[in-house]
Amino acid sequence: MRTITTNAQFDELYTDFQSTNAQIGFVPTMGALHEGHLSLLHRAKAENDLVVVSIFVNPTQFNDPKDLEKYPRTLEADARILEAAGCDLLYAPNVEEVYGGAMEKQRVDYGALTSILEGAKRPGHYDGVVQVVRRLFEIVRPHRGYFGKKDFQQVAIIREMVRREQIPVEIVPCELIRDESGLAMSSRNVLLSAESKQNALALVNTLRAMKERFPGASPKEVEEWGQAQLRNDPAVELEYLEVLDGLNFEQPEAWSDYQSPMALVAAFVGGVRLIDNLEFIVSEEA
Ligand code: PAF
To answer: So what's the pLDDT on residue 82?
Structure first.
């Protein structure tokens, strides 16, 4: 595996990639890698001639400076993990290299996609995500980009960006990966104490119990039942728990109007903000 930190280094290599017509699979990350990231890498390896992984903690997507400060940074360990997993190229730029002094982000408005859930709770977050992914696509020029469905809303927004801006990158959504306890894999899990890890299972357990209640109760009833479970849990500070159609982010009253019913949740557990989701019809793969 080669590790590079500048766009100039990337440009030089890109000329070689082009001369061999290599298909490039790209996995953008913010580091602190876990099994979830590796599943993206494996999928990208299977579907492309070479795989580029970026590690860049993007300051413009953090709406809370304390969250940015706390975000785990483990570049050396990450590089070892990537090398062992067969990554071809690690691109680990600094802020100047990515933005070249032009860090100003624009407001992104894709209707419900950007205004509800994370869009409502973390104002500006997806503006920064769209900005950085667009910029990384410009630098890396991949054929395919791999994104985990743990941030289900992010995948939908990036797909919409690519569609609207006609960016020639195929977006490949990849299954959410859970550890053996059921906890959704996240870089933030390293910030959880053993007790908080246990408490965090309330999120997946509630989602699973909601799925069991579907379609016996109405979408609102299932949603309110789940919200009550988590609000009554003293270890969980609920931000949102909503049932919606994963295809368009709409929230009709009857299940018959849903194409892909699912529930998405965000909550603080032990001071750490976690997100999770469960599709009610697609079977869980992890
Ligand atoms: O999902 C993430 O880790 C980040 O939002 C991404 C896509 C790497 C952009 O910084």
So the answer is: 98
